[in-house]
Amino acid sequence: MSLNVIDLIKGQLGPALVSQAASQLGESESGISKAIGGLLPAVVGGLANNADHPGVLDAITNASSSGILGNLLGGSSNNPIISTLLSSLFGDKLGGLVNSIASFSGISNGSASSLLSLVTGATAGTVGKYAADNNLDKSGISNLLSSQKGIISTLLPAGLSLASLNIGDWAKGYKFDNDNDAIKTPVGEPKIDVTRSTTPTGTNPDRNNNEGGGSIWKWLLPLLLLIAAGYFLWKQCEKKQTTTTTTAADSTGSHTDTASTAVAPSDTTGTAVATAKTDENIDLNGVALKGYKGGMEDQMITFLKSGNYKNAADDSALKDTWYDFDHVNFKMGSATDLEAGSQGQLDNLVAILKAFPEAKIKIGGYTDKVGNEASNIKLSKSRAEFIKGALAKAGVGAQVLEAEGYGSKFAKVDPKASDAERAADRKMSVRFAK
After folding, report:
1. How far is CA 88 from CA 43, 149, 231, 393, in A?
2. Is residue 247 helix, strand or coil?
3. CA 312, 316, 318, 320: dihedral to nearest 10 degrees?
4. With contact defined as beta carbons under 8 Å apart, do 251 and 292 qualify?
5. Are 148 and 174 contacting, i.e. CB atoms less than 8 angstroms apart?
6. pLDDT tens, position by position, for the chain (434 residues)?
């Protein structure tokens, strides 16, 4: 079974990025998610149908080392690699694609255009990274892209087709029927004749023809079922990866560095109380940081401004209060690969530390209760060390006193619970220290 590159790209377009894009563009998260769901198959389809284009292959090769994946929200729109790639893929149909996606998702044309650049950057960067990691030359990249033709149409959300995106003339790998459903037939497959029977009334017509209806449904129904199954699988993946970002009712987690259990949040049932939150401007001495009201940045700045840090006698007065990162997440099993959207909150922490140079912090990493505990401790430690290293590179390393991994020591959710429930235990946190 050939690799589905869309599955690789979705890792770059997780809930944190959707939330930040919605805040930055002034759109709803549902609209952003819906637009990305339509753009991703369209962009991959464009690459698949231009798999032999030298400019496309050059762009993907260069994307792996251009840093696109590290700045999807900030640099996609003005990146020359992305601009060249969009021109090669869509040409004068670019405006039509943007209009169709905007209408489909209920967002503005400007937002749809920004998301097209973002998705194109994520796609080129991910495919380029995969090619580099697997030593694929341009021929290998071309073969990989060509192999996607057979699955693109089945991954489009309901209500959207390649034909409806106004890109039919570049979709050289597809043919479109003249009906409103615009069912796609890959080139090379026989096109079934659905011409109505011309047998005069009163003769013996084909029993299955029924004025053309019977013969259509013999192939149309299975195809519709296949598309429905593809859409269902798409939504299942999307549900796992684009669940609206939630945080505990109080994003401050209280525990001691030596205690065996953590003090429970305000919900006495032991289940995390989750409330959807939206990024707002958090004031840092006249500079606006994007973060949750009552979230990590807001609480840390409030604490520092109150004078409580300066007045703390020693580290023991600070060690019980931790602040959970709202957006910083690592990809599954990795201690060096952050999910898209994580860098923004690390930048916020750097800004806070630079604004309060006397403040010192400690980083903590945590896992859920699943798996070998020794491995969990090692992973959480490595993740904490990675963040410490990232802060050092940003110029505030002297303010990070320690990075420690606690594994599942403070996890609360049963290991038999769903992955979504256990996600509350997989986190990174920070506390003030002396």
Report:
1. 11, 18, 28, 37
2. strand
3. -150
4. yes
5. no
6. 457 777 778 777 878 888 888 888 889 988 898 888 888 888 888 888 888 888 888 888 887 677 777 777 765 566 777 888 888 888 777 788 888 888 888 999 888 888 888 888 888 888 888 888 888 888 888 888 888 776 666 666 665 666 556 564 444 444 333 333 333 334 343 443 433 334 444 444 443 444 444 456 656 667 777 787 777 776 666 554 444 333 333 334 444 454 333 333 333 333 344 445 677 899 999 899 988 888 999 999 999 999 999 999 999 999 999 999 988 999 878 899 998 888 999 999 999 999 999 999 999 999 999 989 999 999 999 999 999 999 999 999 999 999 999 999 999 999 898 888 888 899 999 999 99
Distance CA 389, CA 400 (A): 9
pTM exceeding 0.70: no
Reading phi first (left if > 0) and then psi (alpha if -120 to 50, else beta), residue 16 is in: alpha
Q: Is 429 helix (H, G, I), strand (E, B) or coil?
A: strand
* CB-CB neighbours of 263 under 10 Å: 11
In contact, 90 and 167? CB cutoff 8 Å:
yes
Half-sphere exposure of 146 (CA within 13 A, CB side): 11
Which among 8, 43, 44, 22 is positioned nearest to 341, based on CA atoms?
A: 22
Q: How would you classify the pairing of strands 174-176 and 184-186? A: antiparallel
SS3 404: strand
Which tokens is 132 given? Answer: 């580099």
Distances (CA, A) of 355 to 301, 304, 344: 10, 10, 17
Q: Which two tokens stand for residue 251?
A: 């994003």
- The C-alpha torsion from 237 through 241 and 246 to 247, rounded to 10°, is 130
